[in-house]
Design brief:
about 170 residues, globular, tRNA_endonuc-like_dom_sf, VRR-NUC domain-containing protein, Trna Endonuclease, Chain: A, domain 1, alpha+beta, 4-stranded mixed β-sheet, two-stranded antiparallel ribbon
Length: about 170
Amino acid sequence: MGKVKRRNSPFSPFSEKSDAEILLPPYIGEEKTGELSGNRACTDLLSDDLPLVRSNAKPGAAALVEVLKTLRAHPMVAWCERINSRAATVGGRFIRFGWPGCPDVLGQLRGGRLLGVEVKAAKGRLRPEQSAFLKRIRPAGCVALVAKDCRDVLAELGPLKKVRIE
C-alpha cells in the first residue's frame, strides 16, 4: 500500500518533517537566529536593548506588527486593534473601509481615553488628513501618536513594567 500524502501544518502530528526541522518560537529572553534574515531576534519586550532588526520586506508592515505587539503588552492599554482603511470596487460599487485620515491602530487606555496610533516606516511621512485627525482628537483628551517602532510607543505611554493583576 502506498504512502498517503497529507497537506498539514508543519506542527501537525501527521507532518513529514522531523522534530529537528520544526522551529519553535523562542521564549522570553532567548535569542534565535532566523534562517531567512540571518539576524538576531529577541522576544523579550521588557529588555533595555530592543533590537531594530526587521525581516519583513515591507518596513511599514513590520513596524505595524512591532507597534501592535508593544501596545498589546503595555499595562496602560485596555485594547487595541488594527484598522484596515482602504477603498475597493466590489460588484461595480465603490466601497470605502474606514475614513480619510483614519489611524492604523485604534484602542482604549485603561482609564477610558481613546488611543489613535499612526504607524509609519522609518522614512514614512503623515498625509495631511492623517495629521488633521490626530490633531483633532488630542484636544478631546485622547492619546494620539505617530510610531515608527516600539520605542515611540514606550516614549509616549511609559516603559513596560511587570504588573500583577489580581
